[in-house]
Design a protein that fits this description.
six-stranded parallel β-sheet, 10 helices, four-stranded mixed β-sheet, about 250 residues, Alpha/beta knot, 60s Ribosomal Protein L30, Chain: A
Length: about 250
């Protein structure tokens, strides 16, 4: 069995405080929970240390051995619950250091005016990553990407997908070189094989409940709509983003 360290009280207190946005910004760290996210973080080389639940130590022995230079701590269930934000744990977590990824070379960028729910933000990261989006841009007032629920919801995509926060998204849209595409519920164009769009494309999404603000909608060069064929009037933010990313990805060549 790989020797696991015992954390100090201060370390435990600092790890627990990572649930606070202010402390995450001050420390430059964030919490990573679950096997998938921890393994992706290790591949990305952004892990400061591993936290292993004492009752699951044997299960994660190989993972510790694979990274012998990385500090690994054994913690009891009380400490793990204090640090972790999930009710049902896999017994593995990590403390990560915040990082910045360069934008991908892609003809499509996604911008969300304001995504409030951390779970939605994590899912948007997965959608953007799946379709190879250049960047996911988040407007002012959006949830913190280092929130533990965003990290979990991304299922590892946080470590692959470039994302950045922009205070003045109106200026960004105004200066965009290609078409800026407002996703609206009614009155927009359908994405079809005959639709001519100027690259690079910027897909502009609104808030989960309020949609796009009228000012931002009007600042975009084009408006896109998805026409329902059943009784449901609309799709949620993440599903709509995935549908339009798929449709637009067909037009990137």
């Amino acid at each position: 069995m790989t020797d696991l360290l015992t954390p100090t009280r201060k370390q435990v207190a600092d790890w627990a405080r990572l649930s606070q946005k202010k402390f995450r910004r001050e420390s430059g760290q964030f919490l990573i929970e679950g096997e998938v996210c921890v393994r992706e973080a290790l591949k990305a080389k952004v892990v400061d240390c591993l936290l292993v639940l004492s009752t699951e130590a044997e299960r994660w022995e190989l993972l510790s051995r694979e990274h012998p230079k990385l500090l690994s701590y054994r913690v009891n269930s009380d400490v793990f619950q204090r640090v972790s934000q999930v009710e049902t744990t896999q017994g593995i977590a990590a403390i990560g250091k915040q990082f910045k990824l360069p934008a991908r070379k892609s003809g499509l960028t996604m911008l969300c005016e304001q995504v409030s729910d951390p779970g939605n933000c994590g899912a948007l990261l997965r959608v953007a990553d799946f379709f190879g989006v250049s960047e996911l841009i988040l407007g002012a007032g959006s949830t913190d990407v280092w929130n533990e629920k965003v990290v979990r919801g991304s299922m590892g995509s946080l470590f692959h997908q470039p994302v950045r926060e922009v205070e003045d998204i109106h200026a960004l849209i105004k200066e965009w070189k290609g078409d800026s595409l407002a996703l609206v519920a009614h009155g927009g164009e359908e994405v079809s094989s005959t639709l001519q769009l100027k690259a690079p494309k910027l897909l502009v999404l609104g808030n989960e409940t309020r949609g796009l603000s009228p000012e931002l909608e009007e600042s975009c060069t084009r408006k896109l709509t998805l026409t329902p064929h059943g009784q449901a009037e609309s799709l949620n933010l993440v599903t709509a983003a995935a549908v339009f990313c798929y449709a637009l990805s067909k037009k990137l060549v």
